[in-house]
Specification:
With 111 residues, the chain is mostly helical. 68% of the residues lie in helices and 0% in strands. The chain has one domain. The longest helix is centred in the N-terminal third of the chain and has 33 residues. α1 crosses α2.
């Protein structure tokens, strides 16, 4: 019936769906932050700032940018030229984050 408020069960279900979406979106952003932290040896706040600035300048939602970064990293094929996982990830992140002046502070070897 039009104009009828949703039952408590429907309201709870909708809130649960929203909560699940928020959790999934946040996980994607946290994964992208982790990649940037690993590659550039920066803290979580700096990694989020990089994502936020890139999102604003490209007019792409931060979640979509984070998702693309993760997808690009996963899509990299295993190296045949002796590259470490850090070198592959740096190549991916450099392409995605070019122009933002993010550099590693301390070179590290692959884990």
């Amino acid at each position: 019936m039009a104009g009828t408020p949703p039952s408590d069960n429907n309201a709870h279900s909708y809130t649960h769906e929203q909560t699940n979406e928020i959790v999934v979106n946040r996980a994607i952003i946290e994964q992208a932050k982790g990649v940037l932290m690993f590659i550039y040896d920066i803290d979580a706040d700096a990694a989020f700032d990089v994502l936020r600035r890139r999102s604003r300048t490209t007019h792409v939602k931060l979640r979509l940018l984070a998702e693309q970064l993760i997808q690009d990293l996963v899509a990299l094929t295993p190296p045949t030229n002796g590259w470490t996982c850090r070198q592959r990830a740096t190549t991916c992140c450099s392409a995605c984050m070019s122009g933002f002046g993010v550099t590693r502070r301390v070179p590290r070897t692959c884990c």
